[in-house]
Amino acid sequence: MALSGIQIYKMLPQTNCKECGFATCLAFAMKLAAKQAELDGCPYVTEESKAALAESATPPIRLVTLKGKAGEAKAGNEVVLFRHEKTFYNRPGVFIRVLDTEDDEVIENKVRTGSSYSVDYVGMELRIDGFAVEAASGDRTRLATVVEALRASTGLPLILVGSDPAVLSGGLDKLEGEAPLIMGADTSNWEAMADLAAGRGAALGIRGGSIEELAQLSEKIKEKGVEDLVLYPAVDSMSASLALNTQIRRLALKNFRPLGYPTIAFAAASGDQGRESLMAAQAICKYAGFVVIDTFAPELIYPLLVLRENIFTDPQKPIQVLPALYEINSPGRSDPVLVTTNFSITYFSVANEVEGAGLPAWLLVTDAEGMSVLTAWAAGKFDAESIAKAVKQFGVADKVDQKWIVLPGHTAVLSGELEEELPDWVIKVGPREAVDLPGYMRQVLN
Amino acid sequence: MPVEIPKDSWPGSVNTVTLGATGDQGGSRTSTVTIGGEQSLPFMHFENPTPHRPVIAMEVAAARPADWSAVLLEAWGSTLDDPAVWARACEDAGADLIVLQFGLKGSDDGPVSAEFAVEVVKEVMDSTGLPLVVLGPGQAEIDNSILVPIADATKGERIVLGLCEEGNYRTIVAAAMANDHLVLGKTPMDVNLAKQLNILMTDMGLPLDRIVMDPTTGALGYGIEYGYSVMERLRLAALQGDAMTQLPMLVTPGVETWKTKESKVGAGIPDEWGEWAERGVNWETLTAVALIEAGADVVVLRHPQSLVRVRAAIAELTASETA
Fold first, then answer.
1. Does a structural domain hold residue A316?
2. Domain count of chain A?
3. Is A322's pLDDT higher than 90?
4. What whole-number percentage of chain A has pLDDT above 90?
5. Which of A22, A144, B63, B318 could in theory staple to B53 by disulfide, Cβ–Cβ 3.0 to 4.6 A?
6. Residue B322: its pLDDT value, please?
7. Which domain holds residue A27?
8. Per residue in B253-280, pLDDT tens?
9. d(CA B234, CA B240)
10. Beta carbons of A304 and B220 less than 8 Å apart
11. Which of residues 64-83 of B touch A (CB under 8 A)?
């Protein structure tokens, strides 16, 4: 059970020594209760208290790590229902499903393209996390052959899907030393599946159509010594899936241990790519730890990986770029100075457009605490004063002869004040959207 | 193992707002759209049914859009040349609402005028029986100069007029009050700014059941997480009983996603981005569905295929009313 701040306070030295960085032991205890501080911050806490607090600090959702030959996928350790309450931690692993009944070439092709896929998003390389192999053949030898062939093309973590432990063990034979996910156990096979998972060091997925079924199975399986569990709410509609995933997350966060595991979603939708994409999107937003899709198509994978990145961005720390004067396409002394904020997406939108168009420019990035232009402007973090300050701080006047500075169109209202702050400069109002910058630069600035 | 399912019981609920008016109700629409009324977080049917499903509005530009993605131009073809034909096509495709967006241009590339605007609204209303949202180009003087005559010319239709923003809401709210219309208020991704505008508008005497709010959408990849979290926070505040957050939310995935490079540009982009048209539709539909899960009551879309997919998702999300 999670302890309250007062309960934790009673276990602290109560000396108010301040060495933890907080003014009082009570303040520190409150932060511990809110999971915003670590117990290690207190140098004087007793071993006894440490043990008691560690028990209460067991994460409400167990961290499950799937390991491949190369790479791993983590799920769990989440502590909130809404990302604004703190943050979501582990990006749900995106797995592509292949069937062992498909032709070798089809599988090979899907796996090679999928595992080498990488797309750049604001300077990050986004990738998928692994593959799910479904033992649709029901043939132990066939599954083993497919898994072996797959391991020749990719080292990414695997999920083996099937209901017969004897068949799945054929695939597991080829994954020595790894921690795959076996998917999975249900009311009919759970004992044999638990034995299999325990023997092979694999995580075990539990399939159930209701909260009760999932909770009951997880308890029994845990008693058999398998603790790395993943819950699969096996329901068809987006609505039922949303309800079950929400109920599981809520109960887990109330420290209901039988449901304290990450969940998996299968977004496969028998050929309907539109539905598949939206089920996967829902799974990413609403609590899945692993998402399995059938289609490997860049035009679908790219937006899904971006959605995952966005939803799992820590809202407490906007992704920032360093405030500075950036050079785009080797600008010279007569090239314009474009100004924007240090929110990474804002910076990359502007930089990509101008760079892509091959136009030279100076890009002045101000310190707006990582907010986008409109948000920063509304919050008073992007105004004439802060722009003028950045112009001086980065010595912009020394870099150019033609003193043209271009404001984002949304903040045209700043131009008057900026003229007062920078009397030597010509203030220009650019387009509202970065995508229109190249056209504007060609037409207006020449 | 019996497990007690935790159910939230909220003191507050979202306002119920009806858009459009039929002949009996003093308007000329063949159907009306009712949104809001939620007493739970989106689609938590085990607590409360969803009283009114989220609806899809399709955006129609009053003059042929000059800067739309080629993917959209191809999808709609010559329909885009005539807002009345376009609106009709949206209704036939299954839209619930039409958002008629005015730009700075009127007929023959001249500046938009009150006469032009009123005429376009009337033509669109003649060709479709759906309720309307009518938006000005977003420059205060011009917005007021066209929205007031439109409001006068369509008295009783319960059109949603916008955009009301902090710097320009008085004239539009007054025009809506005088002519039995509704308004759309827009604030830049911030819970307190949204509340503040709602307070200002209701202070003028406009009832809450005639206001819809747009908390501002960030497209997928371009800040969706900000809008998403602001919407979740607004909805939680509404359910907790804060009256100035209890307005249904309208968001604009169409506008926002189709101006991103991913949707707008087809040449000179990385291979990893995949096929252009499908990517554009995914960009729009993923943004729309994420925001629907965060509490959107109206999503404004642009691509006809997005309409089909988001409609199917909404049907699935609201299906288990009786289960």
1. no
2. 3
3. no
4. 76
5. B318
6. 41
7. 5-56
8. 999 999 888 998 888 889 999 999 999 9
9. 10
10. no
11. 67
